[in-house]
Structures are given as C-alpha cells and as structure tokens.
Amino acid sequence: MNTEKKYRLADFFNVYWDEYSKHPTKPIEPEQYKAVNAIRVCRTEALGVNYYVCKDCGEISKTFHSCKHRFCPICSWKETLRWAERIEQNLLNIKHRHIISSVPHELIPIIKNNKKILHNILFRATAETFKDWFWNKYKLKTGLISVLHTFGEQKNWHSHIHSIVPWGGIDPATGELIEIKNEFVQYQFIRQKFRIKFEALLIEAFDNDLLKQNFADRIEFMLFVKSLNHNQWQIQIEKPIAKADVIIRYIGRYSKRACLSERKITNIEDKHITFSYKDNYDKDQSGKAKVKELRLHYNDFFPRLLQHVPPRGFQIVRYYGIYANSSKIDKKYRNKSTSLKEEKSEHKDPKFCYNCNHIKTYLFTIFDRRTRQNRTEKFNREKHNHQKVFLKTKQLCA
Fold it and tell me: pTM for the full model?
C-alpha cells in the first residue's frame, strides 16, 4: 500500500465544515469546534511564519507555526516522536508486552454519556488487573504505560486501552529486577479478573450517583451489569518484545497520534472523503487483515471523526506502578538505548544550511493578520453561541 501523503484533513474541513456546521447531523460540542479550528489554521500564515537566513550564502527558509492540538494529525505525530524519546530510557531493561483491553459493545451508550468517568474506570481496571496479577503470582511490583483509544479502524466507537507492560518487575524484598521467562498466561483468568474489577468500579459509580443514566432503579442497573457477564471481555496480550526501541516504535503507533492519519486518506472529491482501513474480520491467506477503503459524505464523516475529540483536560496517556515515577527506578535497570533519537526525522531541517553546514539565523515572523482575525472572530462567535447550537441540535437529533 502506498503510504505517501497526498491529502490534508484541513483541506476537507476548509471546503465543507462551514456548510456542515450550519446544519449538523449531530450536536457539535465546544471542544470539537476548537479541534476543527486548530486543524484548519495549523501550519498556515494565520498562526505565523518564521524566516531564517544563512549569513554566508544568503539562503532563506521558512517554518510555519503549528497548532499543537492533540487531535491534529500533524502535531499529534510530532508529539508521539517526542513522547517516544522521553520514555525510551525510562523503560525497564527487560522484555515488554503490548496489551489491549476492551469492554463489550453493550457499554457504548453509557460510555458516551459518561466519557470521563467510564474511561477512568477502564484505565484503572486495566492497571489494577495486571499489577495485582504480577504481585499475587510473582510477588513483583510492575508498571504500565497505558493509552486510551475510542475509535476502531473505521472510526466508529470502540473504547479500548493499549498498554506497555514489562514482563517482570522489581522484587521489593531485594530491590532486584526480575524478568519472567514463562510466557504462558491464563487468558480466561485475566479476562475474568479485568471484568470483575471494571464492574465493581462501575457499580460504585452508580451507587455514588455519578453516572448519567436512564435505569429505573438499582435492580434494573444490576440486571444490566449481570447481562454483561455473558459477553466477551477482551484482553489481548502480544508476544514479548525484547528491544526497547522496537517496543516504543510499536506502541508509538497507538499513543498520542490523532484519530485519522492523513496517510490513510486516499481521495477527497464531490463532498466525500475516502480513507483506508484494516478489516480484522477479513484476512488473507497469510492471516493478515485485508486493507479496504471507506467512502463517507461529510455529513457522516465529520460527526464520526469528531466524536473522538477528547474532553478538555482528559489525560489519554497514563502511567501506573513503578512507571508512575520512573525516576525512582535504579539507573542500572533502565534501558540505555538511544536509537530513536538517531532516526528522529526524515526531512531536512529548514533552520540548517546544508550548503554551508551550520545553523541559520532567525530573521523575523510574519502573520496573516486578516486571515487570523477573521477566523478568530468566527470562532469566538461560534464559541459564544455553542451552548445554544448544542442544545438545539441535540433536540433535533433526539
């Protein structure tokens, strides 16, 4: 498959968002307005352009300011690379496993109505499941680096957690790092443990009246929880990975990146956008998921994509156990690899003169003030009226 980037998500928003926002098919929340506005102005004159010059040969180059919004497909990828560099040397120098934990689809409605609370529960249930398992089985203190995703391949709703888990931990009695050699795991036991912890936290939230829900009483709610016991609670544990750089590169695909990579956009035309996805239910002869394409009208694409904009201030990457404060890990047990930094960028640095082999000098910054002012005023009007729009569209879509 050709991974060359041909289309920009901002282009699709620039052409169709204004029309869509007048007659949205789903309520538009304030954070969604902010995300769209950030994507549209990212790396444009509206945010500013820095100019640099080489004092020897006179070559001039420029760099565009970025929006730094975590839902932006460009900025989120850059942040993923920086994140990978930060944590690479803090990993334990043992094998790690990539673990995916997800809940039954029957929970989707209550999750959508209680995103922060239910996703906090999903994070906590995942972390406690594996911390308890390592302690009870091996008497080791371990850690997790967990990342929340709310989307599936087709950008439909699918809440799940990707975690990096060291296959071992610290022996509190001796302070030594112990690696588990046995790869066997009783998956059914782990799944049941995860389900029990999640349901206990869910019931606690209900009893404390923290949930937005439509159950008639506690009996009806408990019957709903009981019905979930018969569904498949997923815990997928990948094979151990030895090298830290491979671990980071592997999990980096699932960390701070945006919901849709622009490299997967294959076409934009006639009010439609087409993107590729992996169909995990349809595999080829080698067992790999087939790559297919999905074409959506902007009326369907915008709400499908924007439902995954995270709530303000919500942490989608979290650290648990010994990784919650990795500075306390003995340096002799940490990874010493620096391979990710050596291959940080595939593109030329515009601030560097490759002819004269030295750093260029900063000249000035230019803003397209009219474009920036027009978009800022429009965004402020939308922000001022968002509550009215949100309530009105919510009534129309009910």
Answer: 0.84
